[in-house]
Design goal:
The protein is α+β, with helices and mostly antiparallel strands. The protein contains 7 helices and 11 strands.
Amino acid sequence: MRIKSDSKSIGITVVFILSIFLQLNHADEVYSRVSTYFISCDSLLGATAEKLSDISKLDPTDKLLLEKINIYPEFEYLMRVNSKGKIISKVVGDKALPRTYRYVGKQMWYKTVNLNKRPYYGSIVNKKGYYLFWIKPLLVWTKHGSRFGGALVAKINIKKGFESIAEKNETKFQVEYRGKNIFSNLGKSVTGTLTEKKLAVYGMQGLTLKYEKPVAKRRPVAVAAAKQQALEAKDTKAVPVKEKAQKPQKKVASEKAKADIRKTTAKAQEKKVIQGKVSGSKKDKEKKAGYISITATIFFIFICFVLVAICFIVMKRAAERNRKIIESIDKGNL
């Protein structure tokens, strides 16, 4: 069994939100639904951890965990660990297991959450399947600040999560983990090339989402309009008409015709001048719009670099602080 962890939650959260924002700008409905599912799971655990921080009795703890696991059956289990590192509540499916008070205080994930007081996001990959292993700290607030009150632990069956997304949204897609297919409901209905996107999930890297891009269908209104235009074009075709023989015109009529021709020519020239001005103004507007678009893109890239730089600085400081704390622990000064 391999457990991969990442406790630097500040930096990860910034990068995760940034990556979701960048990809959702051009993403379609399939990617959006899958990404939103994992964000909602994280939000549920965060809200549950806040409620558990105010609950000290065991029965209300069991009741709350059962209520939440029924919302997401793909959770293998939810359990609460107290501040001394003992499991005081664990629910699986629709029942709470007998209390064993097993000690897990020496496990790395517990030490990390206890030390940093921040969420821990990891994954478990073994022969049984692929799981997310998420821990939320329970913080008890006092007038002197917050203190560590234990942890909420969730093990999530990621394959069941994808099955739930596909069933609830009637969505067809495929997910690969480092090139290996772990879920697919595409079947043999795929006709074109699949769209591929990297899937950002807390604690598990190497996920790729594949799906068939939906083909836009012509709307009934547009089809009806096209038919109507075709009929109008057919009705307005020129019909040959026999012209009546005209009598020879007098000289006055001839001069009047010449004057009309001159007026028509002048109007045509004036129209060309106006059209040239309009065309020039359109080109100017297009150039301005292009400049604005380029400026906005440069500004957005700059903001991205700033966020990444902030993320790097925060992670570096956190790592340094953790190193100093661990050194002080080893020396027996804390």
